[in-house]
Here is the input.
Amino acid sequence: MYQSLNMSSCSNSQSKTKLTIHSINGKSWGKKLGKDVKQWTNECEVNLKESNKVSWLDAFKAYLERRVFVLFLLGFSAGLPFLLVFSTLSAWLRDDGISRSTIGFFSWIGITYSIKVFWAPVVDRVPLPGLRRLLGQRRSWMLLAQLGIAAGLVGMSFVGVGFSSPQLSDQAITAMALFALLVAFSSATQDIAIDAYRIEVAESKQQGVMSAAYIFGYRIALLVAGAGAFYMADFFNWSVAYLLMAALVGVGVIAVLIAPQVQRKDGDTIDESLKEVRWISDKVSTQPALIQKIARWFTYAVICPFTDFMSRHGKWALYLLLLVGMYRISDITMGVMANPFYLDMGYTKSEIASVTKVFGFVLTMVGSAFGGVLVVKYGLLRPLLLGAGLVAITNLLFAVLAMFNEPSLSMLAVVISADNFSGGLANVSFIAFLSSLTSRSFTATQYALFSSLMTLPGKYIGGYSGVLVDLQGYPWFFSYAAVIGIPAFLIILWLLKKRPELNRASQE
Here is the structure.
């Protein structure tokens, strides 16, 4: 009797190892098996090492791909509306004589970005009639969101004219708030769709490059919506400036139209996730068909993304969520007091603008690009570890700067450069890491959860930053901001030791 066992799971683009183990008439072949398996294992290790070798040139070439350019355009589309409902809008309102208290209430519109996880399941699962057949799930939602952004900006442009009339002022303010809310809601919806598309269109090892391209576009859009809008308002007026901003939404529309289609892979992951919560279906099995259908959709769209993450990572899920929540605590806490610190040190507004805008923008771009290359070459956890360490060190540089008796422009340039380079590198690495944690079956919902979790602790702690400065001074505060970044650093070190497979760019 002749039997054979084939083992051919180890392969790369250059070579394929195939092992055939024979058993003839039931005779013992333990020695032969041991020798062959050892040879097969050694060849696999060699092949895997060769396949993981990425040259620096190949890593940089990743930026030349079409989908990377598309992510650059989508990053611009995502960044454009952000300031137009925040600081730029505040400037417009104040310039037209709106009270500070009213302007403060407008800031609540920004809460929309923090709660997008609540409607992420809809973006993840609900198809748009007609558009999905033409563009697919992700691009159809992007296009709908962009139309909402453009409509909201046009509406803000027209109602802003009413600020000059005392009879129309109250109605104009209400209408402005509603249109701004439309822009913020549509922008947050676009973020959900873009994040999901970015994760699904590329492998995990390419997420660093994709994230860097996205950040490039995003930061350029912030300049356009910030300084660019001010120049336009000065040359024309605010209403014309917002009309021009609405026209620039067309950049995102072009990106959607030229973006490659994504074939979603649900399959086994969904089936396994549904098994975890089958008791819900059993509970409503006696209910009317409509109730059963709603319960199944809710289970699949809302509950399964969470059970999927927990089942895939087991006991490590809580540690990963802890890292997500703690990684950005240090830089978010420090960032709250950055501008007050510059002013209290005696730097002029023009000096702050020149150094933070020129050095800050350029070094953020350089750090982001370098971070993307590091993820391609070294995987996920090592660049993440480097970013956490650099962010903590640059906070100590701020503590040193705070000890200067006189403002030093050269030292400010050094500190700002280091801070923005490390921030760009850490941000790209972190986005790539978060992307690797998501399942292709629940991309939008899971990433929306992670992106909300990563900012909430830092924003909460950052609310006490002014109190800490008043009590202890800037040197102590920046030292404290550096120290609270250490736990994230230690968690990454621990994960490198206990779960080294997370460093590999592998994704469900």
In short: The beta strands are 2-7, 19-24. The chain is about 75% helix and 0% strand. Residues 97 and 169 are 10 Å apart (CA to CA).
